[in-house]
Amino acid sequence: MVEAYVPKNLKAALEMLHEKSLRIVAGGTDMLIQNRNRSGLPINFKSDILYVFDLEELKRIEEDSEFLYIGASCSLESILENKLTPELLKMTILEMASPAIRNTGTLAGNIANASPAGDGIVTLVLEDALLEIQSINHLRREKVQDFIQGVRKINLNSDELITKIIIPKVTFDKAYFKKVGPRLSDAISKVAFAGAIKFEDTIVKDFRICLGAVNIKMVRDSAIEKKYIGKTKKELQGLISQILNDYSPLIKPIDDQRSNKEYRKQVSLNLIQEFIENL
Predict the structure, then answer these.
(1) SS3 of 24, please?
(2) Nearest to 124 by CA among 112, 136, 134
């Protein structure tokens, strides 16, 4: 029989993870689908669970001069409504989930699910977001991009818990998120795109592109981005063909019930081109 544990605070949660083998549940919106049972029957969890959604220590959104700190149990809706949240992340949340999901789902859960089609991950990777990860004995930080190691594969030990999402405070002249799916919010992405750019006068000072649902991990390449820093806006727009050639080998989607790989690749390249043309 599956047991459910509901700790009173973060310390108790970490102690439970240290002592027992538990599956962590916050909003549970992905886990409900993965473990769904026949209508009228309880959720078919395969292991004991630790419920962390109500931990007050993980429901805070704070800032300092360098970073925004989002507690791992903050609902998507609370992040959306918070005045500290970057506009690009708000734009992403509006497209990634319906109101019902936004009130229970969490960004930390989206990350830990490690789906190549996780919309929130696209923007967090673009923003160089970090995770704060704790166990009873230690605390560490790791980039979201490195934490996700493949499809449903994450760098999290059995006694560890994601406690915060940490987003560097960086401003852009243009930041854009686009989800391509059969409908907004309630559909899994066929392709997800995030782009951001900063100019000093007309010179590119920061240039970022990230794509989701087109490889086993989010596609972002800092070496490609650095090639175009120092170009003028006009030069960058004149190099669109070269930029598309740079990204094309990284875009390796699959065929599935939602779309085919040829469509996904062409749409990905179209989104990159559209973003640069409309700077």
Answers:
(1) strand
(2) 112
- My answer on whether 161 and 23 are in the same domain is yes
What is the tens place of the pLDDT at every residue in 160-192? 999 999 999 999 999 999 999 765 555 678 999
In which domain, by residue range, is 80 found? Answer: 4-168
Single pTM value for the model: 0.92
**Which residue type does 273 have?**
Q
8: CATH = 3.30.465.10
Q: Are residues 68 and 162 in the same domain?
A: yes
